[in-house]
Amino acid sequence: MNTLISVIFKRPIEAEGVAELLKWAVVFLIIAIVAAILGFGGIAGSAAWIAEVLFVIFVILLVISLIFGWRGRH
């Protein structure tokens, strides 16, 4: 049985998947801004939270990808 960590360290992170994650973070950020302008506070807060979580995941995956991509070239 593979653990999540062993899968992360054995397989390189695909650039397309990471870019897709960033795209969805931007989409939820735009939804949050529009909802806030229209006065839907609950929806705006939820969409902003989702955008923040997706962005943090994106940054973590980017750092892991950079570290292991750099190590793999040497």
Main beta sheet strand tally, sense and closure: none
Quick one: overall form? Answer: elongated
Strand content: under 5%
Task: Provide the succession of SSEs.
Answer: HHH
Number of domains: 1
Radius of gyration: 16 Å
Helix content: over 70%
Average pLDDT across residues?
A: 76
Head-to-tail CA distance between termini? 30 Å
Q: Which residues sit in consecutive blocks of at least 5 with pLDDT less than 50?
A: 1-9
Class based on secondary structure composition and strand pairing: mainly alpha
The helix count comes to 3
Per DSSP E runs of 2 or more residues, the count of β-strands stands at 0
Quick overview of this protein structure:
The protein is mainly α.
Give a verbal description of the structure.
The protein is mostly helical and 74 residues long. The chain has one domain (4-72). Helices cover 85% and strands 0% of the residues. It has 3 helices and no strands. The radius of gyration is 16 Å and the shape is elongated. It starts with a helix and ends with a helix. 7% of the residues are buried. The model is unreliable at 1-9 (pLDDT under 50).
